[in-house]
Amino acid sequence: MTSRDAILRRLRAVKPPYADEPPPAEYLPVVPLDASDRAALIDRFVTKAEALSSVVHRCASEEQARATVLDIISPDDRVLCWDFVHIPLPGLAEALDRAGIAIAPPDDASVRVGITGADAALAATGSLVIASGAGKPRRTSLLPLVHVAVARAEQILPHMEAWIAEMRARGDNAFTDPSSIVIVSGPSRTADIAMELILGMHGPGALHIVLIESEKQQ
Amino acid sequence: MDLPARTSPVGQPVALYVTCLVDYLFPGVGIASVRLLEHLGLTVTFPFAQTCCGQPAYNGGYHREARPLAERFLDVFHDVPVIVCPSGSCTTMIRVEYPRLFADDPIRAEQARAIAARTWELTEFLVDGLGRADLGLRLPEQQTFAIHDSCHGLRHLGLGRQARALIEAMENARLVPLEDHDECCGFGGLFSVKMPELSAAMLEKKLAHIRACEAPTIVTGDVSCMMHMNGGLVREGAFRQVRHIAEVLADGLPEGVRHAQ
Amino acid sequence: MHNEAGQFIANARQALANPPMLAAVKRATDTADRKRDLAMFADGREHGEALRQQSATARHRALSQLPALLEQAEERLTANGATVLWAVDAAEVCRHVQEIAARHNVRRVTKSKSMISEEVGLNDALIAAGIDVLETDLGEFIIQLAAEPPSHIVTPVIHKSKETIRDLFVERLGMPPTDDAQTMARFAREHLRAAFLSSEMGISGGNFIIAETGTLCLVTNEGNGRMVTTLPPVHVALVGIEKVIATLEDYALLTQVLPRSATGQALAVYTHMINAPRRTGEDDGPEALYVILVDNGRSAIYESEYAEVLGCIRCGACMNACPIYEAVGGHAYGWVYPGPIGAVLTPLMTGLKEASPLPNASSLCGKCKEVCPIDIDLPRMLLNLRRDLVVQGHTPLPWLAGMRAWSVAARSPRVFDAAARAAHAVQPVLPKGKKLPLGPLAGWTASRELPQLAAQPFRAWWSEREKRAAQQKAEESDDQP
Predict the structure, then answer these.
(1) Which of A40, A104, A138, C93 allows an S-S link to A108, with CB 3.0 to 4.6 Å?
(2) Contacts of B227 in chain C (CB under 8 A)
(3) Looking at CA atoms only, how far is residue C349 from chain A in angstroms?
(4) Is residue B260 domain-resident?
């Protein structure tokens, strides 16, 4: 008998410790939020993100967003960057090129800044959903000291429960297609040294969220 | 809290279960309880055959040794309509643990459930059972108190609100908060004897809060906690004391009642 | 991990003689407990209690379907490209990891936190196989340097002061002395970075596995969890069989309740869902993902009356709230899991006899159950473990004899009364204000006065009162014409 069989057999040999109840028809969300007020939702996202020491750059235009990104990168001349198709900021590739900023290979561990898009943003906690995929290396948001995430205001969902519901609505593999999904809530941190809060332990020490609050230009 | 529901005890005579600690160490608590209940016009009986509820043995894991004591309790109190007990921990033993102790004996289990449905801790009896927080009490002089919430009563029986209501309703009584009032004093029954240094360390934390408290008198609903805290306070010669709520309230009875024979 | 639970009393005594350590523990646990309360009840007490109930139900549902969910998890994980292995005991876990390491020519392992790896002594097994093992969670890294066990399941070095950690880094790593925590952390970051980038295998634990989708879930703050599960070509995850949960909705709930209960965070910095090893077209991620489902005593608990304890999500709230944990710290508990959860798990997993002091290391105050997000009745289990200790004969004979004597005496009001009278007669002889060398009383009297037996017990007062009342009634009826 394999270990697998031994374990399963043992578990099946007894009456389960609880009666089998069906899951609730509706789950109480951990953070109750009124999703109808978009403006309030966006404000909440910003407030919560800033409370986690993320830096939020609210940009009224794509031009402003591009300038912000360049500003954060300066004076470096190399960055890690997702494929531009996954970053919701048209013209970014050209802007970086014009500024003489090279895109380093995804495994370059010496680069200070990594630029990604986001798969969703969560207002309840000021968090970003960062999924892996072709052209979306995991390391871009992990290795550099500075993580720049570009997101559009319309990507903001109320909370994690809403994001899960959206994944379900999208279809079977929406959730499991990426090999890795990280919900990022601020820069990395530790309080292990006598409970002093320190930002930038192993992951990025700074998270810049470039939030574009205008219609997407084609 | 999954406790057997109780019917209103109004109009019923009350059988007092004083507990062995009160009986032999702190009889004043029992006397005060009787005075308070009689002041409210209740008929109080004291089934003489009562002894220990078995909690020390039970909490130590000695269920076989606790069982005869519990059975005795069920027998002694089987035909009284209402039982009142000036102890949160003993009341917990009766209401929460007796049904478990007799889970394998349907007859005793049913007796335990029936008794659990007729047993009240003193403060909940007054405030929830009789619906009386104001007992018409008045202290001869202004006094300030703080309450220490004994663990069993607090977490198993939801006690705390009632004691506060009773003290606040008493004239000349003022209630102030005790820091970490719901933190264990470290007694834990035989825990204080099995792990005395640990128990003493917990007591010291409680005493530090008591020393820093504005109230010279700390009030509690369990003489076990009381004797533990006073054990430390007396040793250090402190000016503070811990008293059982029955005695504190009884101080507010009319002069004649308080000292009646 | 070496089990010292049997020496709890001696270890507790040692801890009590270390006030600076205890001050550090108290500061950490007071803060964590306060933050937990703020976070769990941020939207009101009623909402917070509802979340606790919802979480408890989610865990109960998972436990009630455990074998089926494990099979579903295995099927989904495998379909996603992971290799699922099962381990009955500690030896098998170590064997699996050693085999995987050999297969992939692993020379150096980087680890993020895994309590199971402590349970099974994995680090020692790997080192014995000539493999270098580096803990990367800052707290675990520090205790690895100090060659100590962790003292808390979430924040393993709350017992260490900043100065102690500084000295450790200076001595063992050659750090230039500094009292700035940020500088110390930066130093550790640089030191560990090279290891992350060069190690051939990353080992992690697992906070949950979502059966519905075959997803391994990690909850971390530092980023090392992401590092060890992304950079090395091989990732091995050790997950207890009880960690399986049913659905995405259960996951959303529990992955938010866990950080709130643990540290007061709404979400951990990295809420990480791992579905698969590197997918075609992806630039990074491990080439191989192994998930080892570990039993190591859990199925035995499942079979017992203590199955409820398998609902634990390892948040540490119980130890943050526990007055005994605060009084002696985590090391006194002697094994992987300290505090109230440890007082229950250690006897169940390593043997009641070996861990016999632990069920008694509690005043049964009930705070642990009150703060547990899964509402696990730890005090109930401690009571039942004490019963088990007695039934299995692991209690000292004097105690059993004493209890029997008490039971016999208390059964008879007259015997009990006589004994109390005798004690009352003897008591004045005992000196006051000092420690009395009288067996169990010595401990009490070291710092406390004994209560005094009353001159007149309550029942004597009552009898007299009845007599007087009867007399009075007789006199009154005598007076009647």
Answers:
(1) A104
(2) 451
(3) 16
(4) no
